[in-house]
Amino acid sequence: MRKLVLLALVGLGAQLVDGSLGMAYGVTSTTLLLAIGTNPAAASATVHLAEIGTTLVSGVAHWRFGNVDWKVVLKIGVPGAIGAFAGATFLSSLSTGAAAPLMSAILLALGIYILTRFTVAGLPKGKLGKPLRKRFLAPLGLVGGFVDSTGGGGWGPVGTPAILASGRLEPRKTIGSIDTSEFLVAVAASIGFIVGIGNEGVKAGWVVALLLGGVIAAPIAAWLVRMLPPRVLGSAVGGVIVLTNVRTLLRSDWIDAPDGVRYAVYVVIYALWAAALTYSIRQHRAEVRAESAERAERAERAVAAPEDDRPLVPAS
């Protein structure tokens, strides 16, 4: 019972982050399942089954708040579903011993990407309003779907930063569209795992716990998407993912590092993570101050403009 409550809380927290950041539900949930010894394919299958419900509720909520571009959803979601099915069947064919370190390596790479991307660059802006072409979104969807099912997460970490980096879709619509299209990915990945492993290692109670937590958080996250600082969230989530998967890899047969080496690596990661969070918070505050100063300057110009524009009256 305690484990089910923990999983529900993880699902809630992961969906809060995913719905407001456009990523991390699958990566966060799968990381936890791997940490407690779940079979890699079963862990990814469990998360994707839960995501069928969470992404559906999240998509509806984002749509209600006007955060969805349906053209983007279709252009990236359908190729994403194809990639997810292929990735699920690929992961299902691997042995547990081979898949566990491989999945942790994929999750570690995603975690490093999230941590670096949001700490250094935040949310890039520019070229807003220009259309996103199918020749860009289709390959992105195929790669994102494949990585998502093999890594237990990755649709958001692949899709969200790539679309944001293009500068063509505003952040809230990027996040809402990625979250909504993930429903197609979750369904396709789940079908792939059912074909590959059936229900082996998949516990219905765990699926329901993750699902309940995610469903509760989904509408809240869709509402909070305009209010929470994504830069800080990205640094925080990226650090958790990096730390957890480095721990898994150092303990795996691939490396099997001694205790002294492992603890030294953990200290370094904690220090870098703390520095990244501190930098992200400072940069966010600086951005808020700059925006406030810019608004104040525009207001002053608006007040002064009527006096400057008054017509000159010739002296009598």
Report the sheet with the most strands, covering strand number, pairing sense and barrel closure: none
Determine the structural class based on helices, strands and strand pairing.
mainly alpha
Mean pLDDT: 80
Instruction: Compute the number of helices.
Output: 11
Strand fraction band?
A: under 5%
Radius of gyration: 22 Å
| Series of H and E elements | HHHHHHHHHHH
Q: Ranges with pLDDT <50 over ≥5 residues?
A: none
What is the terminal-to-terminal distance?
Answer: 91 Å
User: Can you give the helix content as a percent range?
Assistant: over 70%
Compute the number of strand runs. Answer: 0
Number of domain units: 1
Basic shape: globular
Q: In short, what is this structure?
A:
The chain is mainly alpha-helical. It has helices at 2-21, 25-35, 40-64, 70-92, 96-120, 134-151, 155-166, 171-197, 204-224, 230-251, 259-308.
Report on the structure:
By secondary structure, the chain is mainly α. It has one domain (2-302). The protein has 11 helices and no strands. It has helices at 2-21, 25-35, 40-64, 70-92, 96-120, 134-151, 155-166, 171-197, 204-224, 230-251, 259-308. It is globular. The model has no long low-confidence stretch (mean pLDDT 80).
SSE layout and pairings?
Elements: H1 2-21, H2 25-35, H3 40-64, H4 70-92, H5 96-120, H6 134-151, H7 155-166, H8 171-197, H9 204-224, H10 230-251, H11 259-308
Helix pairs in contact: 1-2, 1-8, 1-9, 2-3, 2-10, 3-8, 3-9, 4-6, 4-8, 5-10, 5-11, 6-7, 7-8, 10-11
